[in-house]
Structure formats: structure tokens, C-alpha cells
Write a structure and sequence with these properties.
Layout lengths: L5 E3 L1 H7 L2 H10 L19 E7 L2 E8 L2 E5 L3
Antiparallel strand pairs: 1-2, 2-3, 3-4
Amino acid sequence: MIDQSRQITRATFLKHVNRQDIYSIETDLGYVRCKRQGLVMADDWAVSYHKSKLHGRTVYYFMHSAIEYVFAQA
């Protein structure tokens, strides 16, 4: 999956994933929703967004601290 991936923008990533799921994960990782309250995931230079194939299916994922969080349609 990683070898086949291509980096995409956060905007493209958000078009293809369930936003409630990503917002929940962001909260679990310690990000805040409002810049006035601290670091938002969108501004974290260490987070990258990707599109790839996994078991023949298109997946979207973000990488945070060398961990891939993968989103696939059910």
C-alpha cells in the first residue's frame, strides 16, 4: 500500500472519508477543532495524506507518527 501511494492534499482526503470518523480520531490524537485552542491537525506539518490501493481497493489514509490510519469504503 505504501509503495503504491501518492500524496494528496487534506482537502482531497476529506472529500473521500467520513468526516465524523476523522474528527473523532483527531480528538483522540489530541488535536483541537479551533486554532485558538491549540494545534489543529490541518496545521501539523508532520501529518501527510495519501491515496493508494490495498487488496485491490482504493484507500485513503493519513500518516501520523509513522502510523497509517486507513479509510476504505465498506
